[in-house]
Amino acid sequence: MESRRHRIYSSTACPHQRKSLDNTIATSTSDSNMEQPSSVASSPKPYKIAIIGAGSVGSNIASFLLLRRIAPTILLVDIDHTLCNAQVLDLSDAAFLSNAHIRSGTAAEAGSADIIVISAGAKQRPGDSRLDLINRNLKVLDSVMEEMKPIKQDAVVLMVANPVDVLTLFAQEKSGLPKGQVMGSGTFLDSARLRALLAEKAGVADTAVQIDVIGEHGDSQVVAWSSARIGSTPLFDILPLTKDEQTSFAVTARDKAYEIINAKGFTSFGVAAVVSCVCESILADQRVVMPISHWIEELGTCLSMPAVVGRGGTVRTVWPGLSAEERAGVEESAKRLVNVIKDVN
């Protein structure tokens, strides 16, 4: 089959997502006429990003988008209008460092945005079950989706609220958009954390480490050790880690959020950085490969797997090379998510 090849590396992509120039993926002729990547900054299009939720996460997302000049207009939306307006006033004081404009708005206005980031959601309370949290956040999602309708047909929805995989699936159903246009932040941050730990161990830059955390953003997530690289060299040729060491690195990366939450009550900077990277790849059609939550047909659910991210959302899934054990772990992770969704339904 005739094909063209897209680089996984992008010189303007976020550092944790840069890949070596010789790592490429084949794409079919079905998208051979798709628009070539371009930078956001040079685009004349008046792109708008809406953020639903003006709390600690949403406001930090707005800050990163503003200071990194990802889009000309940033819209912040929250049911607490006083808080939302205060956040906008505060953020506007930093706008002199940017060419972007930030303002508050309504959910109906958010529905016309090019990217809709949903960070609004309830926090897990002591004694809450996973199902309790899902049910409360589904009510929030229902309300947000109804207020935004009709949603712009070529908009991309990015779920940030947790449990992100389950909410991403329901957002796909409720938005009325094609599944590829609705995704979740997933294990992008988990992957970045793991890369940083391994880079420190190997004495190399974070960008030199290529490894992905896949599956559920949660306890059943899986590390794709089999396809891990430092530069173009298999990771284990440089870091011959034992099974116990692999587990230790994976658990440390996975549980870092709990350490932060126990100390300050929430995490926000890392996820804001992740969201800014995803939004940049979408608006500039950079086609960066990112481990994000999206619909995986053969697994029947949304979970994190590397995907090419462009203007239309997830262009395609890029399965990493997996061992039989890793593949079984991903399938088990998918089953857990499917069972949770059945309980909700």
The coarse silhouette is: globular
Helix and strand run: EEEHEHEHEHEHEHEEEEEHHHEEEH
Number of E-type strands = 16
Oligomer state equals single chain
Radius of gyration in whole Å, from Cα? 19 Å
- Please report the number of helical segments: 10
Structural class: alpha/beta
Q: Strands across the major sheet, in which order?
A: 5-4-3-6-7-8
Beta-strand portion reads 15-25%
Rounded average pLDDT: 88
Contiguous runs where pLDDT drops below 50 for at least 5 residues? 1-13, 16-39
Termini Cα gap: 42 Å
User: Major beta sheet, specifics?
Assistant: 6 strands, parallel
Fraction of residues in helix: 25-40%
Q: How does this structure look, described?
A:
By secondary structure, the protein is α/β, with parallel strands linked by helices. It is built from ten helices and 16 strands. It has helices at 56-67, 81-92, 107-110, 130-148, 164-175, 188-202, 235-238, 243-264, 269-283, 324-344; strands at 4-7, 24-27, 48-52, 73-77, 101-104, 115-118, 156-159, 182-184, 209-210, 213-214, 222-223, 229-230, 233-234, 288-296, 301-310, 313-317. The strands form five sheets. It has a six-stranded parallel beta sheet. The chain starts with a strand and ends with a helix. The model is unreliable at 1-13 and 16-39 (pLDDT under 50).
